[in-house]
Known about the structure:
Layout: E1 6-10, E2 13-16, H1 17-39, H2 44-70, H3 74-77, H4 92-111, H5 115-140, H6 157-175, H7 184-204, E3 214-216, E4 221-223, H8 226-246
Antiparallel strand pairs: 1-2, 3-4
Helix pairs in contact: 1-2, 1-5, 2-4, 5-6, 5-7, 6-7, 7-8
Amino acid sequence: MKIDPVVFTIGPLEVRWYGIAMAGALLFGIWYLVTRGKSKGLNQDHLVVMSLLVMVFGIVGARLMYVAANHPNWFWEEPIRIMKTYEGGLAWHGGLIGGVVAAYLYLRYRAKISFNQVADLCVPAIALGYFLIRLANIPNVENIGRMTSFYFGRWPAQLIAAGINLALLLRHFVISKKNLPDGHLFWSFLFYHQVLRAGVEETIREMPLVYQLYVNNSLGIGFLTLVQVTTLPVLLFIGWILWYYIRKESPNK
């Protein structure tokens, strides 16, 4: 069953499922951050400004990295197309880097608020955003799974990726009840997300391999994609933050 990626049109304007997913995740993220931040005594104005900066630089970073990795010719052949984010095409790592850098610089040098404390409050929005975007990939026919010899044919990669983030969101709410140091929720979420994305989602997703380490067309799996290649240094960096930086601030130490 094919789902129309366009929900409705207003004149020349097309409202797509992808855009609704992005807007819904962003609005929920701002609401949740401000509400939870208020209960912790954080300045609401600073949280709203930070959210807007993260939204802008996160989308810019995600779009630029996606284009650079998949359609570099757009930069000189179709630069206007780079701005059409509502059509789909965002890179997780680009959005993460853009959002984290913007948030860190603003919180440290303008708001004078702990980045790690605020980052923990952003996990639900990140998980929900990834969940909704992967569902919105379905009508856009993006991030499809590899073909297999199983009865279902192609891996439902979008649904599996959405399920992974739903599981990580539930994990977040469970461990958030523990007395953990600031930043643990955020960085541990990124760690497990990266492991599951590289180990499961990328393995069954129809993506070009930068190095053909192993391919099984019957099972519909393949190694190594660009994400899988870059996963180890990312995990080492996150692991260093968790075990050498955040651990020092642990209340149980």
